[in-house]
Amino acid sequence: MAIIKNNQTEEIVYLNTQHTFGRNRHIANTHISEKDISQSHALISWKGSDWYIQDHSRNGTLVNGEYINHATVKLSKGCRIQFGEHESTQWEMINLDSPSSYLKSVQNTSNIIELTSCHAFPNEEKPEILIYPEDTTWKFEQAGVAVDLAQNKTYSIDGEEYVFVENQVLEDTMDNGHVVNNAYFQFTLSSDEEHIHIKIITQNLELDLGERVHNYILLALARKRLADVNANHVMGDQGWMSIDDLLADMSKEFGKELDTYYLNLKIYRLRKLLIETKPYGYLFSNIIERRYGEVRFAHPYFQIIKEEACIGEVLAMTN
Fold first, then answer.
1. Which of 73, 171, 213, 278 is most buried (CB neighbours < 10 A)?
2. Is a pLDDT exceeding 60 seen at residue 173?
3. 9 burial class (0-12, 13-18, 19+ CB within 10 angstroms)?
């Protein structure tokens, strides 16, 4: 995230996509109390792939010593911005990264958790809280229950209170529906099914997810969906499997008793892997869909191969 620093007080401010500086506490993201500062003095905003400052004050703003009044200029790292006559109104751009949503500590406002991928607290080995993106929202999951993070709402993480700040880029996103709609998951099994390799194949591109423990979860859910397709269940009913049944299946496969905590951890790691798989893995990060007490393989198209033969598939119809 972009950061601006006050040269006198050394206060650090993380910039929102539309960030107002001014004397009016009710409309300014950053309040400046000096009397020569306008109610809404200037706006720093993210446009395209750059940060800009727009002055709309009575007295103007200095950018690197140049006076601007009711004008917009592009900002660069190290830019010095002075909103008023007093030195306390001088700030410096020290980071120009693109904006992202974040959690801000209530006790220490300089303590920020920038939300960029999947996050586990206190750690990934023994997570008690999971935070991850889903469609256009961020999810906060605790004890297997997930809720949407809500603007300005407070959440407890590691014994500390944090406020969620929605700060996504305000611009049109590319429509990648064609990528998802033309993709299928390919499961390649060894003869004894001890090894499960998964690829996502789309538009002559293969996203290799490799061989991992959580692949068994996807395979079990894909097989349940295949059985429901063959039984002519409607799409909305296809693939749903109770968490108890899935855990019983997994416990039998791995030869030990597994619980919901273990399942949630594996789903988290799968989701993280997909988000980090370039270029399109993030589009499939919600491959496991949930509803009360049940989960399912969320993508309609897949293929299961064993000993070089297809043993089951559901693929998109082509003209």
1. 73
2. no
3. exposed
As given in the structure block, the two tokens for residue 259 are: 């619980």
d(CA 139, CA 124): 16
Q: Note the helical H segments in 160-214.
A: 177-181
Report the pLDDT value the prediction gives residue 319, as an integer from 0 to 100.
41
Range in 90-99, 120-129, 236-245 with the lowest mean pLDDT? 120-129
Predicted confidence at residue 317, as pLDDT, reads 75
Average pLDDT of the segment spanning 237-250 = 97
The model's pLDDT over 283-299, given as tens digits with 9 standing for 90+, comes to 999 999 999 899 999 99
Domain check: are 122 and 233 in the same one?
no
**Domain boundary pick from 77, 95, 113:** 95
Q: What is the pLDDT of residue 155?
A: 98
Statement to judge: residues 288 and 192 lie in one domain: yes
- Using an 8 Å Cβ cutoff, are 32 and 24 in contact? no
Cα dihedral 276, 200, 135, 98, rounded to 10, equals 30
What is the 3-class SS of 80-143, one letter each residue? EEECCCCHHHEEEEEECCCCCCEEEECCCCCCEEECCCCEEECCCCCCCEEEEEECCEEEEEEC
Of 110, 111, 91, 113, nearest in space to 102 by CA: 113
CB 240 within 8 A of CB 274: no
Give the pLDDT mean for 109-130.
90
pLDDT at 175 over 80: no
Say if residue 76 is in the same domain as residue 107: no
Q: Sort 69 into a burial class: Cβ within 10 Å, 0-12 / 13-18 / 19+.
A: exposed
